[in-house]
Structures are given as C-alpha cells and as structure tokens.
Amino acid sequence: MTFDIERDYVKTGHFRRPSFEGIRSNVPRILDKMHENHIIGTFFLTPEVIANCEDLVAEIKRRHAVGLHSHAYYQPEFKGWNADGDSLACYSPDQKTRMILRDIGTYRHCLGKLRLFRIGRLEPDQTILKVVSEEGCQCDSSYHATNYGLLERLRVALKYDFKEKPVKYHLYGLEPSHLMRDQAVILVHPLTPPGKSDKEVYDENHLMRMIDISSRYCDPKDLTSCINTPQESPNGYD
Question: Edge to edge, what strands does the sheet with 139-140 contain?
C-alpha cells in the first residue's frame, strides 16, 4: 500500500492557507493498524508536510519507506499558478526544473537520499521525471497503470534510470480480490478532516478492512522491495 501525505485539500482547497488536520488525525491510526498487522507501506510526503509535521514525518520514517510527493500548488510564486496552481502544464520547463530541485533539496535535507518519487495528480511530466532520474531516484510511481502502455514503458526504459511501479488501484473501489494480484500498487489519500466524509477521497473503515485482509492473505511490501529486483521488460505486465 502507498499513501500520498499532503495538505487537507478537501477542507481548504489548493489556494487557501494549508491545513494538516486530516493527516494529523488519520495517519497515526493508520500507522498503529499497520503495525498491529505487521505491514510495511510506502508514504509519499510533500515538502509542505515535511516542513510542518516534523513529529509525524519522523514516526512515518521510523516505521515505513518514505518518498517525495511533488505538486505545484504550494509554489505560487511561479508564473502560471493563478491559471491552475496544480497543473504542471501551466509552467515552463525552467520553472518545473526549479520547482522539483527545490522539493528534492527539502526532502534531502530532512530525510536523506531520494529513492522513491511520485508526482502530483499521477500526471507524469517528462521534465520533472528527467530531473528525478538524474538526482538518483531509484523507483518512481507517477503513472497510473491505465496510462502505462507499451509506448510509455519504452519511454521510461530508454530515458530514465529508475524503475517504474505504476498505481493500479485507489482505495475507493478497492476489492479484496485486487489485493491478491501480484505487485498491485494501491494509492490511499488519508486527508479527510475529522467530521468530514468523502469516500472517494478517504474511507477509513474500508482501509482498515483492507489492511486486515492484506495481513491474512498477502505479503505486502513497500516499494523499496523493487529496487534490488530485475527491471521488468517494456513488454511485460505486472
């Protein structure tokens, strides 16, 4: 299982002062549940979370694999932000390079070498991924499996040094049978603030059931497990 840990955009959106109430409330329970079931996951953290939730980040790092989760919405000084602050299509290659280098610098200063990366919105950007690869990232999870066909597999294999592990399922719509499929990368957004309910963002009861099932019938691993395994063929399917 993988988790994108960022501001509570359900509560504040992308354009107001950020709140981290949701992850501060939800993530400790997730960590305890995963510990209870002996499950290790992967948590992708935005630089905002790294800077504002130090105790929570330290606890995540102590128990699980961590990676960088890069968005544009927290970087309003770049031209294009007012058009759609979280769409990388609004920014020039130079701006995107500056954004990701700053994010990597924050991550490296607080958490060490960048090994795992996921881009915001699961919208792979070739400028960003090129920098991430050059900075030594070993595993990327920026694609969704439905958009990771043969041409994209070839592109990644030829252009980048990291291994790609595309997301296959989101928490909403996740069924127990999905957990049985080998190397299925599941994406969870544990952002919903206390008292709010949006099952297409985060359904805690459903997540807890899936963790229980995973512990009984699967062998869950974090994404670092793919780093020392052979790279899949561009023609292969997980």
Answer: 163-164, 139-140, 116-119, 65-70, 42-45, 2-5, 186-188, 169-170
